[in-house]
Amino acid sequence: MRKTLSMILVAAVASGLALTSCVDESSIPDRVIVVGSGLAGHAAAYSALESGATVLWIEKNAELGGSTAIATGTFSAAGTELQKAKGISDSVELFKEDLNRIGKGKADQELLGLYATKAAEVWEWFVAHGLQPSPQSPLIDPMHSPYSIARTYTPAKNSAAEYCKVLLAEMARYEDRLTVMKSTAATELIAYRGRVVGVKTSGEGGTKDQYGKAVILATGGFGSNFDMIAKRLPKYAQLRSVTMPHASGDGIWMAEKVGAQLVHMDYLVGYFGAIAEEGTKRTGFGSLTSGFAERWKGDVWLSLEGKRFVDEDGFDEDPRETALDAIPEQTAVIVFDQAAIDRNGGKLPIRNFQQWLEKGYGVKKADSMEDLAKAFGLPVDAVMKTVAQVNENAASGRDPQFGKADNYPLSTPPYYGVKSYGTIFMTQGGIKTNARLEAVSTSGAVIPGLYAAGEVQGTAQWGGLGYAGGSGNTPPLVFGFEAGRNAAALTVEK
Predict the structure, then answer these.
(1) How many CB atoms lie within 10 A of CB 18?
(2) Domain 5-222+427-488 has CATH 3.50.50.60
(3) How many Å apart are CA 384 and CA 371, to the nearest integer?
(4) Using CA atoms, how far apart are residues 491 and 461, in angstroms rounded to an integer?
(5) Spatial separation of the C-alpha atoms in residues 77 and 96, rounded to whole Å
């Protein structure tokens, strides 16, 4: 549906949009402005161009790509040609059921439905335009709470940047209608006559107002904005983050200032987990401790109270993340003995184990469990009581508390511990949108001319309260395509 100015003004009055009066209406060009260049930004820019729009693309970093520089390429969809070729029966309804199970039914059902319905179409578009799938696709992703059916895919080179390469190649056909501004930050939205008409920018050439008929915010989440996390979600102030330094949530706060409604800002899922350097909350994928659950047997996870809190070996990540959310500071100490190392062929489940041990911060070693507990500042009596129960479980072959299948004693020195922090992969709160990807105000009305796509929406809107395989890549691409098309179709009568 194409929107006219009269429709826009009615919506603007309902939204209570803050207005700027000093805008030269003749300076507002018929173009779409895309802010941010991760997956959603790439998809939105391409889709708007493909739909006939002129596009101004703004990126605050020196290079395009956003967080795709560090993200894997997992993508999830139901009913694809690859599934059919391998005899896998799947449907959008089953996909939606899995997403709601993993997300605990907390997602916006219209957005979840759009994501699940459009995912296969978007995947097939990439394959048709040159993306090479991995031979293993589709698979059940072991890194997150598993789907009931193999519906997760990766490019042959497992990187999210592969999607950007395809989109950039396709955008080359429209270079006469595309202007790209890198090393340029969008600092504020500009509103005029009841609609968003541009952004204020700051870059090497100074500050400038950029105008257009629509603005698409694709600026990502705020996983590296520790000040804002501490202010708005103090419970999660101890979480570490693998997100890139630029993940500061700029678009979220800009939208809030013009009256956008923010949703799910009280929730942050801490992935289990990662070591972090002393004095910083930033960590990297090489410091993840999730390998304990995937590959090891015999490790015991203790809360800062010195107690077990979950089945350490369960296949599903979600119970661990839920349990992590309930313990002090979302922080655990993973303990094991020499027998566990020997049992696992001498292999250790984290990278650079010896280097961490030498630093004496994230990894510690002791000749007794008492000394190990003291080294991490854990309550010794509680730890020793827990260890006694672990050894009893090993003797009986059963875990009455958490149902762990393989129980081994903690009794062979030396003993080791790894301090593991809940870790941010994505942020769950962000700008509320409708299924057209239009931003919604605090009054519930559409904010005319403003769209949002990707993590800037908050992942809980499409995925609820949990991590589903591929949910960091698929929805930003699906919603980026939709936002670009819808923004391009916007008609503004002057």
Answers:
(1) 10
(2) yes
(3) 11
(4) 27
(5) 10
Q: What is the pLDDT of residues 405-432, one digit of tens each?
A: 999 999 999 999 999 999 999 999 999 9
Given this model, what pLDDT does residue 103 score? Answer: 94
Domain chopping of the chain, boundaries: 5-222+427-488, 271-424
Residue 311 to residue 78: CA distance in whole angstroms: 31
DSSP characters over 378-413: --HHHHHHHHHHHHHHHHHT--TTT--SS-----SS
b/e map 83-97, b = 16+ CB within 10 Å: beeeeeebebebbbe
The two tokens of residue 489 are: 């179709």
pLDDT at 218 over 60: yes
Phi-psi domain of 257 (left: phi exceeds 0; alpha: psi -120 through 50; beta: other): alpha
Q: Using one digit for the tens of pLDDT, what is the confidence trace for 113-168?
A: 999 999 999 999 999 999 999 999 999 987 788 999 999 999 999 999 999 999 99
CATH class of 271-424: alpha beta
Query: Tokens 């694809």, residue?
Result: 80
Look at 451 and 4; give whichever has higher pLDDT.
451
Give me 416's structure tokens.
């080791």
The mean pLDDT value for 480-493 works out to 94
Structure tokens at 308: 């077990």
Angle at 301 between CA 295 and CA 305, to 5 degrees: 170
Amino acid sitting at position 315: F
Beta-carbon contacts of 378 under 8 Å, excluding residues fewer than 6 positions away, are 302, 304, 305, 306, 333
